[in-house]
Amino acid sequence: MAFCINCGQELAEGAKFCANCGKAVGVSQNGAKEERKTVYDGELHKCPNCGERLDSFVTTCPACGYELRGAKVTSYVNDLAQKLENVDTVEQKIDLIRNFYIPNTKEDIYEFFILATSNINAGGYDVEAWYAKLEQAYQKARLSFGHAPEFQYLSQLYNKAKKQQRVKSFTRTIKKSRLLQCLLIGAIGAVLMIIGFFGGSMSGDSDSPFYMVAMLGFFPILGALIHATQGEKNDKEEDE
């Protein structure tokens, strides 16, 4: 396909003059025709059935209705998934996840994002590795997608995963610390007692159910003290 170097009009095959502006098709010093040519930056995706140009994330051709299956855009993600299935040890799987290169195309980033968040939601030994990779994918998605609707969806998945990460991290911290366990249990009891006594005094009724709530708050506090005492006893036995 050739174009006029003066006005950009498409030239008929074999034409010596532009039909639009009359400019002669130039000849360079080495004898070659000087023609304006179309240059495409990047790879174009076309329907294999009718040749229609396809936009990102299209699963059905808008021109002929052809369903696109086995798309190339998922090849990077499929490659990672297959490698993870073929390795045997936990260390190898985590190493594959951490060293996997996040692709640059929008389609590949989108597919990887779905894969990462799905594995995070499933839980398991490799969650931390997926969290680290998700952070990298999110930064690339921010640059690639901009304010596109697709990025808004990815942002929701990312924020949900980060919130889940914070909750799990807090839970692990509580499980590892007997002191924090006692403080948390005691705080629950103290809140119940404060609500109960305050509500009972405000009602002016000595038989108010709020006083029952205050009494219930006593048990968590007692449980926290017993838990702390038992912990000190176990620590002394271990030291001996």
What does this structure look like?
- The protein has 240 residues and is mainly α.
- The protein has 4 domains: 1-39, no CATH class; 44-69; 74-174; 178-233.
- 60% of the residues lie in helices and 2% in strands.
- It has helices at 75-86, 90-99, 106-122, 127-145, 149-176, 178-203, 209-239; strands at 45-46, 53-54.
- The protein has a two-stranded antiparallel ribbon with strand order 1-2.
- A hairpin with a 6-residue loop joins strand 1 (45-46) and strand 2 (53-54).
- Helix 2 runs parallel beside helix 4, helix 3 packs antiparallel against helix 4 and helix 3 runs parallel beside helix 5 (149-176).
- The longest helix is centred in the last third of the chain and has 31 residues, at 209-239.
- The protein is elongated, with a radius of gyration of 33 Å.
Radius of gyration (CA) equals 33 Å
From the helix content, strand content and strand pairing, which structural class follows? mainly alpha
Counted up, domains total 4
SS summary, helix count: 7
What value does the average pLDDT take? 75
Helix content: 55-70%
The main sheet comes to: 2 strands, antiparallel
The backbone outline, from C-alpha atoms, is elongated
Strand order of the largest sheet: 1-2
Q: Identify low-pLDDT runs.
A: 27-43, 70-74
Straight-line N-to-C gap = 89 Å
Strand fraction equals under 5%
